[in-house]
């Protein structure tokens, strides 16, 4: 049972938009920064979003992040088959004094 | 280019010990906070431990507290994870990752596999 809650899977057609939710509490998302990671099976995770809504250099603006209260959302527009991967949200948890991840969401581009 | 290369994984019996290393290059290691993150086979990511750039601030997940020790050698651009009293549940790929939870874990190594089994 992960501290942050994500849907196990989402799917959409190429070119469409998808959102992935991440629900937490005041001890993590509510009062700390959220980051998002993409992991293609068999490879290391890759940072997509940090500080709730900022993109590292090289990450296309098709990827966006937002936060409201104790929830965060990753948005992906113009879906491509290459976007098929597992997506994880993460944040610091003040009560646990540690980092926490969501359980991951598998994106399928139909 | 930033590179993180883990080593030291392998097969170990329950109750045994193992020391993981992460060799860093391409950036000023002594300026950066570092983390260990693990992933059990077929499972999601689990944060394991954090160390500040100076080594003065350290945190552990409850699941490894008292059994794992994170450390770093800034002169040798290296990060370590000493693991003891290993359990089957510690079986995972262990990644070292640069960064903080504000700036994000922006670079990850390729991972090293630890298998705890008799």
Average pLDDT reading of chain B: 97
Biggest sheet overview of chain B: 7 strands, mixed
**Strand-pairing-aware structural class of chain A:** mainly beta
What percentage of amino acids of chain B are in beta strands? Answer: over 45%
Q: Would you report the number of β strands of chain A? A: 9
* Strand/helix succession of chain B: EEEEEEEEEEE
Poorly predicted regions of chain A are none
What do the pLDDT scores of chain A average to? 97
For this entry, what is the oligomeric state of its chains? Answer: heterodimer
The tally of beta strands of chain B, per DSSP, is: 11
The CA-CA distance between the termini of chain A, in Å, is 28 Å
Silhouette of chain B = globular
Radius of gyration of chain B: 13 Å
Report on the architecture of this protein.
The complex is a heterodimer of chains A (110) and B (118). Chain A has strands at residues 9-12, 18-23, 34-39, 46-49, 63-68, 71-76, 85-93, 98-101, 105-109. With 110 residues, chain A is an all-beta fold. In chain A, a hairpin with a 6-residue loop joins β3 (34-39) and β4 (46-49). The N and C termini of chain A lie far apart (28 Å). With 118 residues, chain B is an all-beta fold. Helix content of chain B is 0%, strand content 53%. Chain B has no helices and 11 strands. Chain B has strands spanning 3-7, 10-12, 18-25, 34-39, 45-51, 58-60, 68-73, 78-83, 92-100, 104-108, 112-116. In chain B, the strands form 2 sheets. In chain B, strands 2, 4, 5, 6, 9, 10 and 11 form a 7-stranded mixed β-sheet that branches. In chain B, strands 1-3-8-7 form a 4-stranded antiparallel β-sheet, with no helix packed on it. In chain B, a hairpin with a 5-residue loop joins β4 (34-39) and β5 (45-51). Chain B is globular, with a radius of gyration of 13 Å. The N and C termini of chain B lie far apart (40 Å).
